[in-house]
Design goal:
The complex is a heterotrimer of chains A (about 400), B (about 270) and C (about 300). Chain A is α/β, with parallel strands linked by helices and about 400 residues long. Chain A is about 35% helix and about 15% strand. Chain A has two domains: about 180 residues, Periplasmic binding protein-like II (D-Maltodextrin-Binding Protein, domain 2); about 160 residues, Periplasmic binding protein-like II (D-Maltodextrin-Binding Protein, domain 2). In chain A, helix 2 links the parallel strand 3 and strand 4. Helices cover about 75% and strands about 0% of the residues of chain C. In chain C, helix 1 runs antiparallel to helix 12, helix 8 packs across helix 9 and helix 9 runs antiparallel to helix 12. The chains are: A alpha/beta (about 400), B mainly alpha (about 270), C mainly alpha (about 300).
Chain lengths: ~400, ~270, ~300
C-alpha cells in the first residue's frame, strides 16, 4: 500500500517538476537569419565617451594582450592601465567558438573576434555597432580592412580592425626535408610522417581542406572554401578522414602544438606564426612556409559588448590597442600584419611590414579569411544550399572519429 | 595469520611495485619543478631553484590558493550541516523513501562532473539569470560534498544505535539538548572526518568549477589549468603541485586518526 | 537498535514514538532534500528538457520547439555510436584494471600489514589524490612523449612509448582513479573477520582457495562500490583524454565541444543523457549487490 502511493507520488511530483522546469528554460537570441543575409538586432551606438569606469574585461587571442605575466619583456597592457586607470582582466580563448560562447555569457567587455566569430556575435546581439568617430586611431587603419563583410553590416562598422594573418605550414627542419611548399605535405603526403602530423582542432579547418581541393581538384567546382554544398563538403571530409590517419594530435590550444613540436611528437602541420615563434624560443627547429595554394587566415576585429558596464574603458581599450605603438609590439610578438599602417615605422625589425605584407592589399586579397559558413552560399550560388556551421561541426566530429 | 608465506610476500612485492608506479609521475612533477628547461625535457639538462622562488612570489598562485580555501571552507560548512541532517534522519526507520534519499544524495557524485557542471551552469545563468560567482561555485561544490559527510555520519550513527539518546530523553532532556549533549559528541569525529574529505574534494575539483565560476575568479585548479601549458608558468605549477602533495599528508593523517583505525571514514572520497 | 524494533515496549508508546519519529525524520530531511532537489534535480531536469529543443546554428539561440532530432542524430549517426561504445569500453577496462591492481594492495593493507604499516600505507595511497588531477595527467603526457621517461625506460628493451592515444588514455585514467578503488576495497576487507580465514584454513583450504572462495566474494560488494567511481569518472572525463589521448574522442569531449565550441546546448544535453542513463542503470544493478553500503 505505502509503496504504491509513494510511487504515484513520485510520478505526480515528477510531472509537476517537468511542467515547472519547461516553463522556465533557456534564453532566446537577438537577430534572425533571413534569406537575404541577416538583420542585426537594433542596438544603440555610443554617442560620446564618458569617464573611465576603472575596469575592463578583455577576451583575446593568446598573444594579443600581454601584461608581462607570460614574459616580462612583453607588456603593453600595464601602460594602458596606467594611462586610463582601467584595471584590465584578460581571458584567452583558443578557438572562435570559445570566443562566441564566452562573449555570450555577457561577462566580457571587448573581444578580438575573427571573421568566423564576428558575424555570429553581431547576429546574436552580442556585438555593438561602433561609433568610429570616437576612436581616434580608426583613421589610420588600412582601408582594405574597413567595411568588410565580416566586420560591418550595411555600412555600419561593428568593431575596430586589429590585425590579420595567414595560417601557415609549420615543420620541423630536422625531420622534414626538403622544405615543403604545398599543403599536400599534410594531405596527400601526410602518411610519410608516421602519425606526427597536426591540424587545428576546429570545424573551420574544413575550409583548409576545401582550399586544397579548390586548387587541386577544380572539377569539384569549389569557388570559395566557406561555400560548400553537400558534395563539396563530402569531398573535403573524405580528404580530412584520410589525413586523420596520420594525425597524432589535433591542437586547439596553441601551447599543445608548441609542446608537440618541442618534444618531437609533432613534425608538421598548420600553425599560427605565433606558435612557431614560441616553439623556436623553446629551442625547437621549427620553420614556417606560406604554401603555393595560399591559405586560410584570419582578420581580427575588436568588438564591444552592447550591455557592457565598462563601455568607456572598452572604447579606450580599442583606441589604445589599435594605436601604432601597441600595434607594432603585438604584430612582432604574435607574427601578424598590423591593421594600423603607422605601426610599420615602429617595428624593431625594419622590414617587418614588408615581410608580412601589411600594406599589400593584393596579398591580403589572396587569403581566405575565416568566415562562418551559412546556408546561403557565400560564393553567390543560388541553385544549391550550402552547408552551414552546424553541418561543419557535425562533420568535424565524424572526421575525428 | 593464515595466509601462506609465499602469498604474503607476493602481496608485499606487488604493493611495493604499484606504489612505485603511483609515485613515479609525482616524483617527475617534483623533479620538473627544479628542471631548468621550461618544457620539461627528459632527462633534465640542469637543476635550478628559480621556479620555487617564482612560485613563492607568484601573486596569481597565492590568490588562487586563498580563493580555493575560502570556497572549500564554505562548501564544507554547508555540506556538513546538510549531510549530518540527512545522516541522522535516515537511521531510525526503514521508511519507503530511504533508497530514494540515498540515491539522490549520491547522484551528484555518481554522475559525471561535466553533466553536473553544465546542468548547474545552465540553471544559474539561464533559468535563474544570475551571473556566475564564487557563490555559485560554493553551491555546486556543497552539492556533491554532502555525500561524504552523509556516509560518515550514517556509518557512525548505525554503529552507535539509539540507546543513549533514548536514555537521555527518558531522563527528561528535549531533542535539542539531547543532540547537543549526547549525539553531537558521539558524532563529532565522524563529522570532522567527513568534513576533511569534503574539503579535499572541493579543493581539487576542476570540472564542475570550470562551468560554475565567473571569468575573473580563480580557484587553484583553475589557475593550474590556465597555466599548465604556458612555458613560463608550467614549472611554477609543478612547484605548487609538489607543495600540495607534501602538505596533504597532514589532513589525511588527521582524518585517519579521527575516523579510527578503520577506513570506513575515508571511503566516499573522490 | 531503533526503538520501533525493540521488543516488549507498549504499542501505544511505539506508535507515538513512530509518528514523532516520522515527523522528526521528515524535518531533518527537509533542508538537504530541498537543497538537492532544487539545486541539483531541478537543474538536471532543466538540462534534460533542453535536449528536446533545438538551436539556431548561426546565432546560437535556443528555439523551444519540441523535437526528437537531437536524439535521432545521436542514435543514427555512426560516429556517436562509435564514441559511446569506445567510452563505455574504456570505462569498463579502466575499472577492471583498477580492480585487479587494487585488490592485492587492499588485501595486503587489510590483512597482512601491521597496524602502523597500515596507517602509513593509507596515507601513501591517499596522498596522490591531493596532487592536482591536471598536474598528474600532464606528468603522464611528459612521460609518454617522445624521448620522455617511458621511452627512456623501454629503450634498452627495444620498445617505444605508446605515445598519445587510446592506450595512453587507458593507462592514465587507470592511474588517476586507482585510489578510489583501493579505499573501498580496503574498508571492505577490513570488515572481513580473521576468524573466517582461520576457519577456512582449519577446514583444509590452501591460501589460493581461501582467496578465491572466501575473500573475493566478501570483497565483491566493495569492489563494485569502487567501480562506481572508476566507471563514472572515466565515462565523463574530457580533460585527461585531451592531454594524453592524442586524437581520441570520448563522450565527455562530445558534450564539452557541443557546449563550448559548437554552442549547441540541446545536443550536448542529449549526449549527456547517455552517461546519466548508464549510471542510473549501473546504480540500480549495483544496489542489489549491497555495494552502496560499502561506499
Amino acid at each position: 500500500m505505502k509503496k504504491i502511493s509513494s510511487r504515484r507520488l513520485t510520478v505526480v511530483a515528477g510531472a509537476a517538476l517537468l511542467a515547472l522546469v519547461s516553463g522556465c528554460g533557456t534564453s532566446g537570441g537577438g537577430g534572425s537569419t533571413s534569406s537575404g543575409g541577416f538583420t542585426p538586432p537594433d542596438l544603440p551606438m555610443k554617442k560620446s565617451i564618458g569617464p573611465m569606469e576603472g575596469q575592463v574585461n578583455v577576451l583575446a587571442w593568446p598573444g594579443y594582450a600581454e601584461d608581462g605575466s607570460n614574459d616580462p619583456k612583453y607588456d603593453w597592457v600595464t601602460a594602458f592601465e596606467k594611462k586610463t586607470g582601467c584595471q584590465t582582466n584578460i581571458k584567452y580563448f583558443n578557438t572562435s567558438d570559445e570566443a562566441v560562447k564566452l562573449m555570450q555569457t555577457g561577462e566580457y567587455d571587448v573581444v578580438s573576434a575573427s571573421g568566423d566569430a564576428s558575424l555570429r556575435l553581431i547576429a546574436s546581439g552580442d556585438a555593438a555597432p561602433i561609433n568610429t568617430d570616437l576612436v581616434k586611431t580608426y583613421a589610420d587603419i588600412s582601408p582594405f580592412l574597413k567595411d568588410r563583410d565580416w566586420n560591418s553590416v550595411d555600412g555600419q562598422m561593428y568593431g575596430i580592425p586589429h590585425g590579420w594573418g595567414a595560417n601557415l605550414l609549420a615543420y620541423n627542419t630536422d625531420v622534414v626535408k626538403p622544405a615543403p611548399t604545398s599543403w599536400g605535405a599534410v594531405f596527400g603526403g601526410a602518411s610519410k610522417y608516421d602519425g606526427k602530423v597536426t591540424a587545428y582542432d576546429s570545424p573551420i579547418y574544413i575550409a583548409d581542406a576545401a582550399l586544397y581541393l579548390m586548387k587541386h581538384q577544380p572539377d569539384l567546382g569549389i569557388k570559395n572554401p566557406y561555400a560548400l554544398d553537400q558534395d563539396q563538403l563530402a569531398a573535403a571530409v573524405d580528404l580530412l578522414k584520410t589525413q586523420r590517419q596520420s594525425v597524432g594530435e589535433y591542437w586547439s590550444n596553441y601551447l599543445t602544438e608548441v609542446s608537440g613540436f618541442k618534444s618531437g611528437d609533432t613534425v608538421i602541420g598548420t600553425a599560427w606564426q605565433y606558435n612557431a615563434l614560441t616553439a623556436q624560443g623553446e629551442g625547437a627547429p621549427i620553420k614556417t612556409v606560406f604554401p603555393t595554394e595560399t591559405s586560410t587566415g584570419w582578420s581580427d576585429t575588436w568588438m564591444l559588448n552592447p550591455s557592457s558596464p565598462h563601455s568607456n574603458c572598452g572604447y579606450a581599450w580599442m583606441d589604445y590597442i589599435t594605436s601604432p605603438g601597441p600595434q607594432a609590439q603585438i604584430a612582432e610578438y604574435f607574427g601578424e600584419a598590423p591593421a594600423n599602417t603607422k605601426a610599420c615605422a615602429l617595428t624593431v625589425q625594419k622590414d617587418f611590414c614588408d615581410q608580412y605584407h601589411a600594406e599589400d592589399k593584393a596579398y591580403s586579397d589572396k587569403l581566405w579569411y575565416w568566415t562562418t559558413p551559412i546556408s546561403e552560399c557565400l560564393d553567390g550560388r543560388t541553385d544549391v544550399t550550402c552547408t552551414d556551421y552546424g553541418d561543419w561541426t557535425q562533420a568535424w566530429t565524424e572526421i575525428k572519429g | 595469520m593464515t595466509m601462506s608465506r609465499g602469498l604474503r610476500t607476493a602481496l608485499l612485492v606487488f604493493t611495493v611495485l604499484v606504489l612505485v608506479v603511483v609515485y613515479t609521475p609525482l616524483a617527475l612533477v617534483v623533479l620538473n619543478s627544479f628542471n631548468v628547461d621550461r618544457t620539461f625535457t627528459w632527462p633534465p639538462p640542469d637543476l635550478t631553484t628559480k621556479w620555487w622562488d617564482a612560485a613563492f612570489h607568484s601573486k596569481g598562485a597565492r590568490s588562487a590558493l586563498w580563493t580555493s580555501v575560502e570556497v572549500a571552507l564554505a562548501a564544507t560548512a554547508v555540506s556538513l550541516v546538510l549531510g549530518t541532517l540527512a545522516g541522522l534522519a535516515l537511521r531510525h526507520t526503514r521508511f519507503f523513501g530511504r533508497n530514494v534519499v540515498s540515491l539522490v544524495i549520491i547522484l551528484p557524485i555518481a554522475l559525471p562532473g561535466i553533466v553536473t557542471g553544465i546542468a548547474l551552469s545552465n540553471a544559474f545563468t539561464t533559468i535563474l539569470g544570475m551571473s556566475l560567482s564564487l557563490f555559485t561555485v560554493v553551491v555546486a561544490h556543497a552539492t556533491f560534498c554532502i555525500v561524504t559527510v552523509f556516509n560518515n555520519v550514517q556509518a557512525r550513527v548505525q554503529r552507535l544505535g539509539g540507546g543513549l539518546e533514548q536514555a537521555s530523553m527518558d531522563l527528561g532532556a528535549g531533542p535539542l539538548t539531547t543532540f547537543r549533549l549526547v549525539t553531537f559528541p558521539m558524532l563529532r569525529s565522524a563529522m570532522l572526518a567527513g568534513a576533511l574529505l569534503a574539503f579535499g574534494l572541493s579543493f581539487d575539483e576542476i570540472v564542475v568549477t570550470t562551468f560554475t565560476i565567473s571569468a575573473t575568479d580563480q580557484t587553484l585548479p583553475i589557475w593550474i589549468f590556465q597555466n599548465l601549458f604556458r612555458p613560463n608558468q608550467g614549472p611554477v605549477v609543478n612547484v605548487v603541485a609538489a607543495v600540495l602533495v607534501l602538505l596533504s599528508a597532514i589532513p589525511i593523517y588527521l582524518a585517519q586518526r579521527l575516523s579510527g583505525s578503520t577506513a570506513e571514514g575515508l571511503t566516499g572520497a573522490r | 537498535m531503533a526503538a520501533t524494533h525493540a521488543p516488549g515496549r507498549g504499542t501505544a508508546r511505539v506508535s507515538r514514538l513512530g509518528r514523532r519519529q516520522g515527523v522528526r525524520t521528515g524535518l531533518l530531511l527537509l533542508p538537504p532534500m530541498l537543497w538537492l532537489g532544487v539545486a541539483y534535480l531541478l537543474a538536471l531536469g532543466a538540462l534534460l528538457i533542453t535536449a528536446f529543443w533545438t538551436q539556431d546554428d548561426f546565432t546560437g539561440a535556443i528555439q523551444r520547439q519540441w523535437t526528437l532530432d537531437n536524439f535521432r542524430d545521436l542514435f543514427t549517426i555512426k560516429v556517436y555510436r562509435t564514441i559511446t561504445v569506445r567510452t563505455l569500453g574504456i570505462a569498463a577496462l579502466v575499472t577492471v584494471i583498477d580492480a585487479v591492481l587494487a585488490f592485492p594492495i587492499a588485501l595486503y593493507m587489510a590483512k597482512v600489514a601491521s597496524p602502523r604499516a597500515q596507517r602509513l600505507l593509507v596515507i601513501a595511497v591517499l596522498m596522490p589524490l591531493w596532487a592536482s588531477y591536471l598536474v598528474k595527467a600532464y606528468a603522464w603526457r611528459g612521460m609518454l612523449s617522445q624521448g620522455g621517461l617511458i621511452d627512456w625506460v623501454l629503450g634498452p628493451f627495444g620498445l617505444q612509448s605508446p605515445g598519445y592515444g587510446l592506450l595512453a588514455t587507458i593507462m592514465t585514467l587507470a592511474y588517476l582513479w586507482l585510489p578510489f578503488m583501493i579505499l573501498p576495497v580496503y574498508a571492505g576487507l577490513q570488515r572481513l573477520p580473521d576468524s573466517l580465514l582461520e576457519a577456512s584454513a582449519d577446514l583444509g583450504a590452501r591460501s589460493g582457495s581461501t582467496l578465491l572462495r572466501v575473500v573475493l566474494p566478501q570483497a565483491f560488494p566493495a569492489l563494485v562500490a569502487g567501480s562506481i567511481f572508476t566507471f563514472s569518472l572515466s565515462m565523463g572525463d574530457f580533460i585527461a583524454v585531451t592531454i594524453v589521448g592524442g586524437t581520441t574522442q570520448l563522450l565527455g569531449n562530445v558534450v564539452y565541444n557541443n557546449i563550448g565550441a559548437a554552442n549547441n546546448l540541446p545536443f550536448a544535453a542529449a549526449v549527456a543523457t547517455v552517461p546519466i542513463a548508464v549510471m542510473l542503470v549501473y546504480l540500480a544493478v549495483v544496489r542489489r549487490t549491497g555495494a552502496l553500503e560499502n561506499l
